[in-house]
Amino acid sequence: MKRMNETPAVVETGAAAKKATGYREAAGREKGLSRRRMRRGEIRPGTRWALVSGAGSGIGRCYARRLAELGYNLVLVGNRREPLEEVRNELAAACEGRDLRIIECDLAREEAARELFDRTQAEGLAIDVLINNAGMFSFLDMLHTPEERIRCIILLHDLTNTLLCRLYASEMARRGCGGYILNMSSYSQWMPWPGLALYSASKAYLRAFSVAFAKEVREHGIRVTAVSPAGVATDLYGLTPRWQRIGLRLGVLISADRCARAGLRALWRGRRSIVPDWWNRLWIPLCKVLPMWVLRPVRRFTMKFQK
Ligand SMILES: NC(=O)c1ccc[n+]([C@@H]2O[C@H](COP(=O)([O-])OP(=O)(O)OC[C@H]3O[C@@H](n4cnc5c(N)ncnc54)[C@H](OP(=O)(O)O)[C@@H]3O)[C@@H](O)[C@H]2O)c1
Q: Which end of the chain is more exposed for a tag (fewer CB within 10 A), N or C?
């Protein structure tokens, strides 16, 4: 409780959004960038900071690469150092002149958000773009799900991301130059089906929180976007590379890079919530009303994949 009160108070309202937009435009003019390029998120290389969680693999790695290409210095966050080192080496070779930092941090802990925030503050890094991407999957009936996994997923997807949003948005509002926050939700929020109770509910929370939070902080010039992709070809579900390739070819999965590009495009445009790829949006009403007589045979077939 004491910690919460220590968070920088948000003092600026109303005019702050205009001020932030003015700041972005002035900064862009100073950098000699056209309005069109600015809208796509491009900045003068090395002048601003973005933080990406879960940057060591999958979609997070693609967010990191895209942001580095746009000119951002990066804080790469994850719970294992080696994949983060690999991403740093790859980006250092591809995008010269970026400051690339690594923070190894298990985000599935109550104190993780505060630790990460304090760490970036101590290093004097003013974060302009926050990408809350780290996540883990669970496909298992609740009665068999270990308590530890339930705690991890709710902490990682919900508590940590909520606190990170609050801490960094307070800081962005205090600086008065706006900012961007992207939260990775999931299409599974519309699929509260057997085996997915925990994962889909944790992602439903994140999107609902994100959309309302976006409306609260808009007046400070902060844009918040929830991204809810359906299947993406990454290691999240434990699919082998061969099955990922087949999924891509059949159009059931999209590539991690395509997902990251769609997420960032929506973020720069100030969209509160998106589902990458229009055909996935068509199925949402159907997912919500699927009756048990359809789900029951699917359940019988998919039980063998539960783990
Ligand atoms: N792939 C999909 O089809 C899909 C669909 C909808 C939404 N999403 C969401 O998109 C996000 C990225 O997933 P992805 O597909 O790119 O999967 P991924 O390749 O498995 O990436 C997940 C990342 O999160 C990190 N992470 C996991 N637990 C962590 C913890 N406790 N602390 C810090 N970092 C942690 C992982 O680091 P380690 O590897 O070091 O553990 C990994 O870098 C997730 O939030 C996921 O729920 C994915």
A: N
| Residue to substitute in 66, 77, 234 for testing ligand 1 pocket (most ligand atoms within 8 angstroms of CB) | 234
Pocket of ligand 1 (CB under 6 A): 54, 56-60, 78-80, 83, 106-108, 133-136, 156, 184, 186-187, 229, 231-232, 234-236, 256
Mutate to test the pocket of ligand 1, among 52, 53, 59 (most ligand atoms within 8 A of CB): 59
Pick the closest to residue 183 from 222, 157, 202 (CA basis): 157
Task: Tell whether the model's pLDDT for residue 26 goes beyond 90.
Answer: no
pLDDT tens figures, 204-244: 999 999 999 999 999 999 999 999 999 999 999 999 999 99
Verify whether residue 203 is a known catalytic residue. Answer: yes
Q: What is the pLDDT of residue 30?
A: 46
Burial of 289 (0-12, 13-18, 19+ CB in 10 A): exposed
DSSP H helices in 156-277: 160-175, 197-217, 241-250, 256-269
Catalytic site residue 199?
yes
CATH superfamily of 2-305: NAD(P)-binding Rossmann-like Domain (3.40.50.720)
Q: What is the pTM for the complete model shown?
A: 0.91
Which sequence spans correspond to the domains of the chain? 2-305
- For ligand 1, atom 2, the nearest C-alpha belongs to 232
